């Protein structure tokens, strides 16, 4: 019996050294230690032994079992390591490999391209680029901009009010960032704020419910209308060339005084009149004016000491003019046939 058990142990050790596959190892283990395995079969014969022999053989059987389990554990460890090494050989990837030629490469949206060009221009003139929330308070969007709750100017911008959140709107313009900028950074201040705006429009070729503006504000001692004109001329030249002229005509905006409607000479016909400018020779591209004293006060700035100007470009409009896009609705459509052209 003793010999038989020793032989069993030796047989397992001999066999386990030849097997490298996990499943085969598992099968070998159960052939020796399973319920109907070789060790079990040997143990059944213990019943016929006398008490003293049974004790010795029992201890030996436990020792055989332990040795087999240890040898099995070791073999499994070796097999896993080998299989990981072979996986690393056969399944490695080169993370530095460039994408395959067939992968289409995207590009920036035309609005983003023009926005980045303007950001570069303004930062070169010392402007900071600020951001503001698209979900805005009624206070920042209107009241702080000299448009109190009952003011008829609120009707000009058809507003999305947010259900269940009184006093919260989808911002109708980027002008709220004027106040946020003044409050956060104080004066002197030179900032722009590009971003999305939302209006409850009956959409058509020139009006979208979602569009982009670029706001600009300069506040310091002694800032005049002439400074404003100089900056806006620089922007017009950068957009449409050095020969472009600007024309400022009075327009009411509650947050500026005086306020102007800004036009540039049509770059297509250089002011002679064409289809693009509707024969007028001028293209309307921004609103602007001297910051109203009430707005300065809301921004925490003393209007007796400081003055400033502000402007708001319809960025989406600039993009349409630049690329000759005849329907604004293409820009937010997500239609790749359209977007791939830029
Ligand atoms: C404003 O929004 C003012 N906040 C601009 C401003 C800023 C004036 C600072 C003075 C000082 P207005 O509503 O005119 O103004 O909009 C400015 C530009 O945004 C328009 O000229 C137009 O180009 C663009 N815009 C307005 N509504 C839409 C719309 N629904 N779809 C596309 N573009 C629009």
Helix-strand layout with pairing:
Elements lengths: L1 H15 L5 H12 L4 H7 L6 H41 L18 H15 L3 E2 L5 E3 H4 L26 E3 L5 H10 L3 E10 L11 E11 L4 H16 L5 E5 L5 E10 L16 E10 L1 H6 L8 E8 H9 L12 H4 L3
Parallel strand pairs: 1-4
Antiparallel strand pairs: 2-3, 4-5, 5-9, 6-7, 7-8, 8-9
Bound molecules: adenosine-5'-[phenylalaninyl-phosphate] (FA5).
Report on the structure:
The structure is a single chain. This protein is an alpha+beta fold and 342 residues long. The chain folds into two domains: 2-90; 110-339, Bira Bifunctional Protein, Domain 2 (BirA Bifunctional Protein, domain 2), CATH 3.30.930.10. It contains eleven helices and nine strands. It has helices spanning 2-16, 22-33, 38-44, 51-91, 110-124, 138-141, 176-185, 225-240, 293-298, 315-323, 336-339; strands at 128-129, 135-137, 168-170, 189-198, 210-220, 246-250, 256-265, 282-291, 307-314. The strands form two sheets. The chain has a seven-stranded mixed β-sheet, with helices on both faces. A two-stranded antiparallel ribbon has the order 2-3. Strand 6 and strand 7 (256-265) form a beta hairpin. Helix 2 packs antiparallel against helix 4 (51-91) and helix 5 packs across helix 10 (315-323). The longest helix has 41 residues, at 51-91. The mean pLDDT is 92. It binds adenosine-5'-[phenylalaninyl-phosphate]. The site of adenosine-5'-[phenylalaninyl-phosphate] (FA5) has 22 residues, from strand 5, strand 7, strand 8, strand 9 and helix 10.
